[in-house]
Design brief:
Strand order of the largest sheet: 3-6-7-2-8-1-9-10-11
Structural class: alpha/beta
Helix content: 25-40%
Distance between the termini: 14 Å
């Protein structure tokens, strides 16, 4: 089973939920791996004493100019939909940061003056604790296109494990790369108008992708029903509530997973997994 953990906005406790869910399974001797696909700001490793196993570079092809062959016809700049190539008189300029590696320029260059060259965009590392396998992606500083790194993390997953994916925040392309083809998506939110707005966007995204979802309310407070009303109106189950408590925040700030700071959460997160399994099997 593949369970993705997402949130419409950052700072809602997505990593707290993903790490706690993965550890609750590991403590029950389940084969589990955690994929940290929040590649712009990976931080799941902070909560584990993991030993490094391997690391590899993620590269993308970007155009390289052979100026001896270039006739400065401008065909490459014309076909590039991302404005990654500009022709200024007899100067051809390439902007690798905005290139999407579609290959249109080098395939359509009439003189063969453009050819693909590898450009590093990030890394994927694998580490292991006594209980679980951790795969982390990290986008290279100064690079803006993160979906290829997210996809590389997912390709590094082992098949025979229960897989928990800690996705990027938001509801744009990197999130879609993280949650696509997962069996279930757990949406983490907070009971505020901002939380509700971004939760609604994330739910719309999952409906397009046809992925079933449930909600975890973090920093829950008695009497605040804003998320409850939305979920009731949209037929979405609220699977877990994590209260707004200073003790939880202090432990999290020290890098202590929720299921280790208070063992009562081990059973709650293990039950959360069984609730998800029940919904997926229906």
């Amino acid at each position: 089973m593949i369970i993705s953990v997402a949130s419409g906005k950052g700072g809602t406790g997505k990593t707290l939920v993903a790490t706690s869910l993965a550890l609750s399974l590991a403590y029950e001797q389940k084969p589990v791996q955690l994929l940290d696909c929040d590649v712009e700001e990976p931080n799941a490793h902070i909560f584990f004493k993991a030993q490094p196993v391997s690391e590899r570079t993620v590269s993308l092809p970007v155009p390289k100019v052979n100026y001896e062959k270039c006739q400065y016809c401008g065909k490459c700049a014309e076909v590039c939909q991302f404005n990654a190539i500009a022709l200024m008189k007899r100067t051809l300029v390439i902007f690798p940061d905005v290139c999407h590696s579609c290959g249109g320029c080098w395939h359509l260059c009439p003189t063969g003056a453009l050819e693909p060259a590898a450009r590093e965009v990030g890394t994927v590392s694998v580490s292991q604790t006594a209980d679980l396998r951790l795969v982390s992606g990290r986008l290279k500083l100064g690079t803006h296109i993160s979906p290829p790194v997210v996809k590389a993390v997912r390709e590094t997953a082992e098949r025979d494990y229960i897989t928990i994916i800690d996705g990027p925040p938001g509801s744009s392309c990197p999130v879609m790369a993280a949650v696509t083809d997962t069996d279930y998506c757990l949406l983490v939110t907070e009971p505020t108008p901002f939380g509700l707005n971004d939760l609604a966007l994330a739910v719309d995204m999952l409906r397009v992708l046809k992925i079933p979802c449930g909600v975890v309310i973090n920093r829950d407070m008695p009497g605040n029903q804003i998320i409850d009303r939305f979920c009731a109106e949209n037929g979405i189950n609220i699977l877990l509530r994590i209260p707004f408590q200073t003790e939880i925040a202090r432990a999290y700030a020290k890098g202590i997973p929720l299921v280790d700071s208070d063992k009562i959460w081990r059973d709650k997160f293990y039950n959360l997994y069984h609730q998800i399994s029940g919904e997926v099997s229906q």
